[in-house]
Amino acid sequence: MRNFRVYILIFLLMPFIIFAEDGSKLWLRFPNVKNGISSEKIISKGKNPTLEIAKKELMSYWQGQTIELRTDKSLKNLKDGYVIKSNSGKIIISAAKESGLLYGVYHILRLQQTKSDFSHLNITEKPSYDIRILNHWDNLDGTIERGYAGHSLWKWEDLPNKISPRYEEYARVNASIGINSVVLNNVNASPNMLRTDYLQKVKVLADVFRAYGIKVYLSVNFSSPKVIGGLENSDPLHKNVQQWWKEKASEIYNLIPDFGGFLVKANSEGQPGPQDYGRTHADGANMMADILKPHGGIVMWRAFVYSPSKEDRAKQAHLEFVPLDGKFRDNVIIQIKNGPVDFQPREAFNPLFGALKKTSEMVEFQITQEYLGFSNHLVYLAPLFKETLDSDTYSDGKGSTIAKITDGTLRPAQLTAISAVANIGEDTNWTGHHFAQANWYAFGRLAWNHELSAENIADEWIKMTFTDKAAFVNPVKKIMLSSRETAVDYMMPLGLHHIFASGHHYGPEPWGDYKGGRPDWSPVYYHQANAQGIGFDRTKTGSDAVSQYFSPLNTIYGDIETCPENLILWFHHVPWNYKMKDGKTLWEELAFKYDSGVQNVREYQKVWDQMEAYVDPERFTQVQSKLKIQAKDAVWWKDACLLYFQTFSKMPIPYDIERPVHELEDLKKIKLDLKHHN
Ligand code: GCW
Q1: Is the entire prediction scored with pTM above 0.70?
Q2: Which ligand 1 atom is at minimum distance from the Cα of 505?
Q3: Dihedral of alpha carbons 329, 331, 332, 337, sign
Q4: Looking at the domain covering 131-455, what would its CATH class be?
Q5: What class is the 488-536+573-677 domain?
Q6: Which option is the CATH number for 31-125: 3.30.470.20, 3.30.379.10, 3.30.70.2190, 1.10.565.10?
Q7: Nearest-5° angle of CA 307, CA 312, CA 315?
């Protein structure tokens, strides 16, 4: 009898068990689809693992007309793009490569998921970038630097024998948005990554990813020859060092014939590099490039370099790399963070874009929210990505946007690529926050087509991930689209930057003054608040970072009257009573911005609570809880920054905004136990 009751209970709960929504499916949800079309309704020739995946997806999920998958070498100019055409009752997807066919299949599935019309299709897609790459900052011990979604997906201890099913799921999800490359390990790279036993593990991952059109790359430690090769040093100009790399490359390519290449963080934040031997970044990058060249591999050399010096940190990459322009091999690409400091909620764009005229350049974004509330805050990053890509550098006259510089439109670049630091971990929902999935999605979509709008991408993602009901889509889209500006407002409005708590970067610490430590890791170095005003003077009379920008931006940014207000404290030290465009003083404006950030998050909570009817209970409550944290954190940020800056401005917090609820002295005592180095 008891057993019987248990059975009844299980039976009644069945629909909930089956349809439990834990976010693990990401945007590849097909809640009402039991089966796709039968194999007879798929026309294709030849056998190939990628093609088999494409067919399997159609047979599992596609509910429309007959599909023909056609490889067509004449479409080579589309690279791994594709053409989709409706033709007398069927749909023909053609592409030069099988990966293009797979992307085409995900395209029509997306149309089905978003309930778009697919009766008269005539679509031609060509990716904006050849290499669309995720950078994992995963360590060999399973931790992830700046990772907020649990441990690493890569189970190094189990590999090469045990293969987690998530490797393939990961590859599939990436393929669905066109990501075709991944760097498996942290740029703060362990030399052990290149040990033979690890390479055999890497091979297994590469073998799983290959059918999904994904190539594997590795971050390498510049000292590897010395550390694991037992050489005396790792001087790139030494023959035995070069020989070591040569043999290593052969070993890698024997295991992984389509290996992508190396990503290198050198002479930055304590990492070894060519400068340890009096050599330049070009010497180091070229040595590796020469070794990879015969195998078809490339070097992505990072421009994120700065040393503890008197020079403004925002200027250092430009100072270092511009003199090397023209000296890099054609299979080297310089990987440049979107801003010149470090993935801040808002930065001016990195002036290195466009400044290297004879060298391929690529953007590095950060999807993981190191500086944006980890996986606790809802911050949709497509507007940030777009802001960078659409920035006009004026390097080759008006219209020289970062998108056009990096995608090869403006200059025939040898290599075109775009990268982002992943936010993926072993959490069931992959990214910690359900809405952080949207940032992975948005990066992939923009890497495929940087002309898509943040709004369109949000629209697709919401419909695929949650529901297409307008009563849900529209308000949620509104939240997403304003969320980045909201985060800027409650953390660092008007161009403020890097006033985070030290090390872990969660929460405010504008008072942070690491006397005796590195000034360029101290908040007070970045905000420069004093009795006169606040902000970093980067004008000609300050650090002169403005001169690294092409005309007319150097003058626009350099003049307080013409500098965009959202960057005013990035470029200027501004008096507290400076009159802003809306008539408020700088101090009032700052206070209003912080307050509006807080109010917006409260609004998001209200809107989300009204969405309950449209979302499964699991994801509804999880997002709801995260919004509570975000609301509390926003108030924490606002109080910490306003109360602290008030000690300089000596002005009242405008009376029509919410009053602080904390004491400054209490906030100063907060020390979160989240470990990290800087
Ligand atoms: O954003 C900073 C991070 C470091 C990171 C570094 C980098 C991988 O705080 O954790 O190291 O940038 O991009 O190299």
Answers
A1: yes
A2: 9
A3: positive
A4: alpha beta
A5: alpha beta
A6: 3.30.379.10
A7: 85
